[in-house]
Design a protein that fits this description.
single chain, 156 residues, mainly beta, eight-stranded antiparallel sheet, three-stranded antiparallel sheet, 3 helices, globular
Length: 156
């Protein structure tokens, strides 16, 4: 069994995935993990793990670890409709990235100005067993956590 430590890509208040107001995330349809309610400003979204940037969209990205664990970071809900407005990428799809590296600058106020929720779900792609994702104490207590702090551990 491998253990993958997943870091918070942004700071803010930790939120249980089931409390995300979007059934795709709250019901674990994409995978299991946690979410972060970010500060209301322009912030940097970091790589939650080291690996290859498998997918890069303006509003979301997936990093695949060498052990084959894919971690999705989704910046806001329904933000695909913004067509990249409010997001600036600093890397390219296919790049090797390290945990903590800046991936996207996220303009939270511009997303909220469009009436969208800026919450940031972070999930292990295709994880179907919620018990394989061990949440950090910060998540289980809905604490404020720093960018780069432990979010959860994925067991595979």
């Amino acid at each position: 069994m491998t253990q993958t430590s997943v870091l918070a890509p942004v700071g803010g208040r930790a939120v249980l995935l089931e409390d995300v107001p979007d059934p795709v995330f709250s019901q674990g349809m994409v995978g299991y993990g946690a979410a972060i309610d970010p500060p209301r400003g322009v912030i940097e979204a970091l790589a939650p793990v080291s690996g290859k940037l498998l997918k890069l969209m303006p509003h979301a990205y997936i990093v695949l670890t060498p052990d084959g664990v894919g971690v999705l970071v989704h910046l806001g809900l329904d933000t695909v409709a913004l067509n990249g407005e409010g997001f600036t990428a600093h890397v390219s799809q296919g790049d090797d990235v390290r945990a903590g590296q800046v991936i996207i600058t996220y303009d939270v106020p511009s997303v909220e100005a469009k009436g969208l929720n800026p919450i940031v779900p972070v999930v292990v792609m295709d994880e179907r067993v919620p018990e394989n994702v061990i949440l950090s104490d910060g998540v289980t207590s809905s604490a404020d956590i720093a960018s780069g702090a432990s979010l959860f551990t994925a067991n595979k």
